[in-house]
Amino acid sequence: MQKLLEQIVAGASGWVELRYQSRSTKRITVRNGKLEESSSVLLAGLGVRALVDGVFGFASTSDVSEKGILAAIDAAQGAARTSAPSKKERIRGLADAPMATGTFAVATDDPLDGHTLEEKLGLVIKLDERIRSAAEEIVSSMASYGEIQDEKIIVTSDGASAHVFDSKPELRALAVAGRNGDQTMGMESSGITGGWSDLLGITPPEKLADDAVRLAVDQLTASHAEGKSTVVVLDPGLVGVLCHEAIGHTVEADIVLGGAITSDKIGQAVASELVTLCDSGVSEYLPHAVGILPVDDEGVLTQKTVIIEKGVLRSFLHNRETAAHYGVAPTGNARAFVYSDDPLIRMRNTYIESGETSLEEMIAGVKEGYYLRELGMSGQADSNAEFMFGVREARKIVDGKIGELVRGATISGNAFDVLKSVDAVGNDFAWENGAGACGKGQAAKVDAGGPHLRCTMTIGGRQA
Fold this sequence. Notes:
Elements: H1 2-11, E1 15-31, E2 34-52, E3 55-61, H2 66-83, E4 101-104, H3 117-133, E5 138-156, E6 161-179, E7 182-191, H4 196-202, H5 205-219, E8 223-224, E9 228-234, H6 236-247, H7 253-257, E10 277-280, E11 304-309, E12 312-313, H8 320-326, E13 334-335, E14 344-345, E15 349-352, H9 359-364, E16 368-381, E17 386-398, E18 401-407, E19 410-414, H10 415-420, E20 424-425, E21 430-431, E22 438-439, E23 443-444, E24 447-450, E25 453-460
Helix pairs in contact: 3-5
């Protein structure tokens, strides 16, 4: 297939990008002891982008014969010509970039295909059983396993010819506890780039189940959080959520061009000097981040991009079009979820770099506040960096010690104001390593993380 695409591109007129993809997915869900879903799906096809008269045209096809691919190129070029007269602004060019050539594969000694569907189903059944039998208060349970395996071939008329293999499995555990008509929920998940043993090793499945049960049951007797502005210590999971949802989307260059709060802030201080925030196609600090992406869907080799350096905004996230618009180098952030999707600017692994303060020192320095862990079931953020997220687990900090659990906590504010209030950055690091995907017109598998952070934000709850 790769040679065929190279031959076709060599004979094509103008700039052409061909992206072949073969994807297999599996999904297994067991709820309350009953199999709810067991599905396997295979899709394959080709996406084509053509640049004609300063306008992109896109087409896709499941016919990957030479005839089918040539027809898709004609369709993409025709779409560009048809839409060109209505375009007020034309693409002046695509920024030069290090184009990928060769083979790029996930590093694992234990590929997913080495394990049967029966083995994967057995794991999910055991997880669900463990949740249901863990405590008498459990009234509902759910366990699920999912995997995405991709093969991509990306060939462009300006030098890319990359063969990419990817593997992203995930596990979820959910427990609902009830007592006297009151119900509470606990949820845990893990997801990685890698193989079977890599997934089971990142967080043991039994721990996922036990933590979900513990959180659900403990919340039955927890008081509600008190709404106020206060000092908080965020765990790496919530730091990752802040990085991705509240900051990351505001620096995606297509959103910046649409009027994001960051549009005129390059070179300005937007955070504490303790904060350096990055986005990388590589799994920095620790292996197996979900958003590992060696080559983006324009065929550009990915790199680490420093977005905020010691508090100063340094870069947006770019594809080749926006990089040319701003006169900078592409950052390798063009991504398409399936072959029939047009590549968009998306994050990969977004994180804050580690600092010098231990978690113990951080907690000890709080007279009164909260320790907050992981994203809850709800949340939203906008292009002005305003956010509101539910918190999965919130505990009071009193006189430098973590204390009782509270329920129903949310956090809100402006992400840049929060980052300006950071007065301690942990010397630890963790990826969020969660299941699921980011949505922005189409899905994308991403990760986020960092060290523990101490900052000030508004806690939502009930007034005392």
